[in-house]
Amino acid sequence: MNSSIVFHSADPEAIQSGYTAFDNCDFVINVGEGRSLVRNSVRLVGDLQINSTGTTRTLGEIYMDYRIGAHAMLDSLQVTFGGPGGGVKQNTQNYARWVSMTTAAEQSQADMLNASNQVELRAPNQLSVERYADGESSGSTQNIISNLDFALKPNCILNKMVGDHLPFEKSGEIRLTINLAKNTQIRTSWLYQLSRIINTTPSIYQKAGAIHGCVLCHQAQPLVYMEDVGRHNAVDKVAGWMRASQTLGANKILYTTGRLTSEMVIKCALMGIPVLASRSGFTAWGVELAGQVGLTLIGRMRGQRFQCLAGQERLVYDADLSGEDEGRKHRRKSAQ
């Protein structure tokens, strides 16, 4: 029986000239009937461009952990099969952190200097990877543009499958979705718009009171609104909606009417959502945990006022504050 290996390439769907933080890239892998995908054969190949001004380090906003290299550019990864018994087979949030936890212990300095790790932009120490990005031009007063070719093997089930190959008859068309990290920007204009939209949306609370609401948002647009007598139940309903609709948490905002407790922070982090906001207050442990997991925590969000006690670096103050503040009739009772 003869066998042959055929190399396939797939461009992102709706390909763009460039991709920035939290853009989605979808790749469709279709090896064809009668063929199989070979284990550990999937690579993501691209060109990394890092820009900066002045004498600041070019990695200033993009922290590339030297242990995982180009993997640090991915925020989440999803694998979906289109064949019999298909659906989402993998949904990894906080991808870079997971790669760091699962591979750092296996790496030595000698390992990091081999050819595979070099194309993944891994390095023996942090200084080396910083020089990659700096282009040895840290003293320049001009814009620094560093272009780095990379090729990484995503830590996914396609490369870690049991057995040597995956027949097309089992997988069907395979969709690999990656969401690029990081540096979520939260514009204050989005927060003010969301506050107005959410508080004027017809709800059970407006009719009966004594109930909590939870809203999943993208920028200034609410995606789904869930209510329940308990704030934890309302969050769980949003998590279920995300699972059912295959919605990723990256670049989303989770708004809740309840207090920003440690439990709420943990739920939000596990859902892969980088921003948690509320019109209510904070707890000390909630703020501490948000700082540890890199979550932006926004509380007391009422009209054109809010407090941010964690992840302030994501905020962009772009709103015009000359307009009217939130009207009293649109406030919840807790805010009056």
Query: Which series of helices and strands comes N to C?
Result: EEEEEHHHHEHEHEEHHEEHEHEHEEE
What structural category characterises the helix and strand content? Answer: alpha+beta
Radius of gyration, taken over Cα atoms and rounded to an integer in Å = 23 Å
Structural domain tally: 2
What's the pLDDT, averaged over the residues?
79
Percent strand equals 25-35%
First-residue to last-residue Cα separation: 78 Å
Counted by DSSP, the helix tally is: 11
Stretches with pLDDT under 50, minimum 5 residues: 52-62, 136-145, 332-336
Shape: globular
Report the biggest beta sheet as strand number plus sense, adding barrel if it closes: 6 strands, mixed
Oligomer: single chain
Range of helix content = 25-40%
Number of strands: 16
Major beta sheet, strand line-up? 11-10-12-13-14-15
Would you kindly provide a written description of the structure presented here, covering whatever features stand out?
This protein has 336 residues and is α+β, with helices and mostly antiparallel strands. The chain has 2 domains: 24-180, no CATH class; 186-335, Cytidine Deaminase, domain 2, CATH 3.40.140.10. It is 26% helix and 27% strand. The chain contains 11 helices and 16 strands. The chain has a 6-stranded mixed beta sheet, with helices on both faces. The protein has a 4-stranded antiparallel beta sheet with strand order 1-8-4-5, covered by helices on one side. A two-stranded antiparallel sheet has the order 2-7. It is globular and about 65 Å long.
